[in-house]
Each structure stands twice: as structure tokens, then as C-alpha cells.
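Tutorial sheet, problem 5. The two components below are modelled jointly, 589 residues in total.
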Amino acid sequence: MLSVILTKQLPGFTLDVRWDSRDAVTGLFGPSGSGKTLTLDCLAGLVRPDTGRIVLGERVLFDAAAGVDLAPRHRRLGYVFQGYALFPHLTVADNVAFGLGARPRAQRRRRAAEVLERLGLSALARRRPGELSGGERQRVALGRALAPEPALLLLDEPFSALDLPLRRTLRDDLARVLREWGTAAVIVTHDFTEAYRLADRIVVYDGGRVVQSAPRAELLWQPASEAVARIMGIPNVLHGTVVKATPDRIQLRWRGQTLEAVNSPVRSYLPPPGAPLAFFIRPEYVRLIRKDRVVADPRHHMNLMLGEVVADEDFGTTWTLRIRLDEPGPPAQGAFDLEVEVPHLVYEILEIERDRRWEFSIHRGSIHVLPA
Amino acid sequence: MDLFPLWLSLQVSFVATVFTLAVGVPVAWALGRRTFAGRDLLAALVVTPLVLPPTVLGYYLLVLVGRRGPVGRVLDSVGIELAFTWKGAVLAACVGSIPLLIRAAQAGFETVDRRLEAAARTLGRSEWSVFWSVTLPLAWRSVLAGAVLAFCRAFGDFGITLMVAGSIPGRTQTLPLAIYDHVQANRMPEANMLALVAAGLVIALLLGIGRLVRLRY
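Model answer (C-alpha cells):
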């Protein structure tokens, strides 16, 4: 159990956050400069907050009101810095053993060897950090932080120093290490996929504040606001008008269409008719209706719209189509109304390259309402 | 030929360098790593020996450590005499050379990545341990280069030493003072010899240190 309340005033920036987590891995996610790393530094005791309280399990690490401020060396936290901050003058083995200073020599060596073995670093024990690849450095940094058996592991953008193909492999690698070692962790990242892949709970930062803290699945499907949806980089964040809201359905007007959406089951949201309403449609959940098939049950499709593909982009395994609806007036997103994602196979079978006019349908469960 | 001035100079500059390191390294670390009240004043004070005329510096030192001076009286009561002894020459050499050490060491400490020191702290190390296991091992070349410069400067000091220790042959007459003495008395071969030894020694030291500092991990 980790509970964090802190404020810190810096020139031109104010951090004012409050969150807690019972989950094994907590992700701090948000744009760069939103205060994520500053939070880690406060947790580690490297930066002293102005006010607040940090409690890890039974231990109070910091409490401004009670005058508690444990020194970094007494906090028992493992910190994996951005860029790793390995000691360049020490071998891999000495880097890993660095935090074992308090133990007898023989025990120190045994523990370091054990950690190197478990992380598959034994062959590199005598190398120096300068001779290692990015992925190897990350492992050494992990080993160095894990060796003293920290109560909590802090990871600051663990993949920022790596190139893209390696990031994916190491992301799965890190997920496995965290699971196997069973150490609670806080991971800072500005990449939502990374946060989602590694963390059980995600705390969303923006401008020095927490805008949402939720289990990862809840965040994915129910961002708390339009701001959160934008930080997550969700496409098709749109603005309509409420027609009618009931605890389980919301009817709304958008671009001349009347759309029906499912109201959020956890926070039934009942805006009055005529109120502006933000919502988003996941591009991979928009269906293209095949012209060669007669639909047996017309209720199979809902929220039907007609439009034209005005642009498409190849993303390797998927195509992103930009759709402009057959409605007068300016499109919702500049030159187009809706972004739709289809797998390559579908793009080829439907001959979208040639055939640009389509009818679309969106299930009501795929239109997600964003509370104001 | 009397080589006493050479041996005296070597002894004085060696002892002076040891003291310079003991005082200068902590000061350099404080200037490079800490913020505290009076930091700017200390930084300015550290440079003054470089810009003040050596005789002025020597004069103030003499006033301070002379038998009637405030520091001199305290030292006198514990049986230490500085003015016009070889120890006075050590003091003169220290004061003249410490800016070179402090500036080099401070620059060295400032180039050490603070994240490395932070990492050491989170790994359970005390500030003392952080210095000895991270900061100094990563900055030792700059410290060593500063120490060699300080040694050379101490070896060559003339004005401050003359004021504080005098130029007593066989007791406080260091090599630079002896050269001056020889020239005054028109003993050119002796002056030549000593000057050559001094120049050769200093150039050899600087060349050696240049090679050492260029080594990298």
C-alpha cells in the first residue's frame, strides 16, 4: 500500500498530487513535464516536498506536518533512473553489489552473484557499463536496484534510452522480471501502451496534477474527462449535444446524426437535454457494412451513417481511413469527421482502395461518453 | 655545489601539497556541490592569492603569523613557530598554490553527474561514502591535475616565501630564492644549474600528468 500526498513549488511549475495504490505495479502516465519524475524524486527522498505525506506500507517516509523526512538511504527504495545512471568506473558486478554495503563481504558477493545469475548477466560481470548495449544496461540498472531487496522499485522512463524494436522485447522482459521478483513498483512513462502493458493501476498526470487514477482497464474504456482522453492520445474525441439521458442510455446529436450511446455503468451521468457532450469512438470499433450482403436483422446495425473515404494511411498491419460524412457543414476534425481503422486483410477484401463510399455502423457500446 | 635549496624546495612543496589537498579538496567539493551562505564570498576569497601581489599576500601572512600576530601568538603558546622557518615557507607555498588545486578539483566535481550521486544515496550510502565511492573516483584526474599544478606553483614560489620565511641560507632559502641570490652575487654557473633543474622538473611533471589525465575508461 502506497499513499502519496505532496506539493512542491518550483520556479514556473507547481506539483500538487494525491494518489494511492494497493496494486503491485503503478504507472505514472502523462506528457513530459507533468511532474512524474519529480514525484519519483520526492518518493526517493532526493527532492524534499513543501507539504504532504508519503506512506509505504507501515512506514512513513515523509510527513511535513510531523517533521518526518527519511534520508534516501533509509527509505529502502530501488531507483532505476532514466538513462540508468550506472557507475561508469565500476564493473557490472560492483554496480550490482553497490547497495549491499551494510552486509558482510562474503554475503555481499553471494547476493550479487545470485542477482546477476537471475537476470542472466553472469557473463557480463567483469565488464564496465561503457561496454554494454542499451538492453544490458537496463538489466544491470534493474539488478543494482533489486539487489538490496527494496520495499518498492521506482522506474523512470525505463525504455527511453532504447530504440523501438528493442523497447517491445524489453517491455515484456521487464513485465516478467517484476512479476517474478514480486517487488511493488512505480513506473513513470509518457507512452500509454507501456503504462498499460506494465501497470495494474495507472495514475494520469497533467500539468503537475493528477487527472485520473484508475485500474488500467477502467482507464482504457472510461477516461474521466476529455483532457484524459486527449493525454491518452485517443482518436475521434468529438463534441455533440445531449438529446436524452437515462441511467443506461444517452442519446446525442452530432453532425446531423442521432447517435445512441451506453451510459457509463459506474458513474451514471445524466446531463440535461441540450447540454454539450464530449464522447469518443474507437477507430477499430467502427464497422463498414458490406454491400454484397443482405442483413437479415436490421437491428443488427445501429448508429448508421453514410460517408466517403477522403484519405487513407498505411500503418503496416492496419489501414487508417479518414471518413467525411454526407452532411453539410464543416467536418468535425478538420478535413474529415471520423477516423476508422481496418486490418490489411479487410482493406483488401473490401477493395477500399477502389471503393470509397461506404455505410458505417457503430455499436452503442463503442461510443464512450466523457463527463464534463 | 650546494644542493640544499633544491632539497628544501622539494620538501616544502611536497608538504605544502599535502596540506593543500587536505584543505582544498573539501573546499572544492563544497563550492562544486553545495549551496550555503557565504558561498560567493568563499569563491572570491579562493581566487585572491592568484591576483594579489605576492609581497602583499606575504605581508598579510607575516602580520597574521608573526610572533605578535593573532595566529602567531596562539601557535607560539603551543610551541610552533612559523615566521622565518621552513614551516613558514610551507604556509607561503600553500596559500600561493591552493587556488590552482581548488579550481581544478571544483571543475572536476562539477562534471560528475549528480544522478550518479543520487543513485548512490538511494542505494543506502551516506554522504561520506558517496564522496569516496562515486564523486572522488570519477573526479580524481582533475584533483590530481590540480595537485600537480599546485606542487609546481609551490615549488616556484618566490615573493610570498621571501616575506614569510625570509631567505636564510641553509635554513629557509628555497631554490627560487637561491637562484636570485646566485645571480645577485654573479655566480652564474650555479644559477644556471639550479634554474635548469627547476625547469626540467616542472616540465617533466606536467608532461607526465598530461598523459595520465588523458586515460579514459
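Marking note: Chain B has a mean pLDDT of 92. Full credit if you identified this.
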